[in-house]
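Tutorial, part two.
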Amino acid sequence: MCLATGFQVMSGQGTPFNSAETALRDPTDTVRVFREKTVQCLVLDNYTEPGPYTVETLFLYYVSEHFRTADAQFGAWMIFGLMVRAAMRLGYHRDGSHYSKVSVFKAEMQRRIWVSILHMDLISSLQVGLPRMIREGSYDTRSPKNILDTDFDENTKVLPPER
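Running the prediction step on this input gives:
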């Protein structure tokens, strides 16, 4: 919701909802509150000891900070560093197929997150003029398959063929 509202504000098309029905009338305030609540969730969950959804929440916070201003923000790049380290600590940089306890679904979802992190690593490093945080050869995660979300779920034992 934070990103959708932020993109709506940046597009200049007004709010995507009837502001008379919301507690916060200004979409900019809505984005600020969403970002604030994201940080509160990270702190309450102790993001320094990453667990389920920590990387995804850090990604949301990073992107909301990244799109907050038109200029590259060094602080956002530092947040990205936290996200990369949390992802590596949780094993996102290792392909899930190497581990029997990782389900097919979870392995594919981690691949999708990892490839997004790799792309954001390149983009953010270019913006701040510093080297990438993730070195080539420090990960073995395969590329995600070209399949729709509707093609598999938590109960899938074997991923379907790529489209």
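Residues 104-128 form the longest helix (25 residues). In part three we will examine how such features are distributed along the chain.
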